[in-house]
Amino acid sequence: MKMKRGTISILTFAAAVLALSQISACTSQSLETTYATLEESIDRYIASHFSDSVAYTIHRNAGSNRVTVNPSDSAGFEIPSDTLMAGGTVVFDYALYLFGNSFPPQDMIAATTEELAGQGGIWGDSTTFVPVTVNLSDKHLLPGLRNGLLGVYAGEECYILFSAKYGFGNKEINAIPKMSSLMYHVWVHSIEN
């Protein structure tokens, strides 16, 4: 029994499409597995370094983890009712680190103050240092940072941690390697809703 050339071409094409879709599904599944592993690592880190509920308060929001450093005189301290809402604006200083298992974090890649940049050894003579002003509705804001900043209050010091899924994903961006989880150490100056 002979098959026509067109039938063979269609069968070959169908087999190729099926193979590519299976490879794509495996790649997607592998990526999700990697993200899950990164998020488990962050959860273990938080449990290991921030378990003191007197010193820290943990907030989780859509893949972001915010660890608020409670004021040292926090006996009876209540979070102010004026917290950052979706669409609000926040002014803050920060140090950005590649997430690792050390505390305090080691791999600083950006900072907004000369003191922090000096600690991380990341600045030159032409560097200017100013607090950052961010509106949470900015579409260019990393989802992990946006979700972590939601709910902060003026005067808050916190750490915001998130996996590559909510950061730059499988892309290398400047000093940030592919699949890097990030950790921001944030000092909030003001908020406006």
Summed up:
Belongs to the FKBP-type PPIase family. The chain is of the alpha+beta class.
Query: Biggest β-sheet: count, sense, barrel?
Result: 7 strands, antiparallel
Tell how many strands the DSSP assignment holds: 7
Strand content: 15-25%
Shape: globular
Tally of helical segments:
3
Going by CATH, the architecture would be: Roll
CATH topology: Chitinase A, domain 3
CATH hierarchy, class? Alpha Beta
Percent of residues in helices comes to 25-40%
Number of domains: 1
From the alpha-carbon coordinates, what is the Rg to the nearest angstrom? 22 Å
Q: How does the helix and strand content classify structurally? A: alpha+beta
Mean of the pLDDT scores? 85
**Low-pLDDT residue intervals, each spanning 5 or more residues:** 11-26
Order of helices and strands: HEEEEHEHEE
Distance between the termini: 75 Å
Task: Walk me through this protein's architecture.
The chain has 193 residues and is an alpha+beta fold. It has one domain: Roll (Chitinase A, domain 3), CATH 3.10.50. Helices cover 31% and strands 24% of the residues. The chain contains three helices and seven strands, in the order H-E-E-E-E-H-E-H-E-E. The protein has helices at residues 5-49, 114-120, 143-149; strands at 56-61, 64-69, 89-98, 108-111, 132-135, 157-162, 182-192. Strands 1, 2, 3, 4, 5, 6 and 7 form a seven-stranded antiparallel sheet that branches. It catalyses: [protein]-peptidylproline (omega=180) = [protein]-peptidylproline (omega=0). Residues 1-25 form the signal peptide. Its EC number is 5.2.1.8.
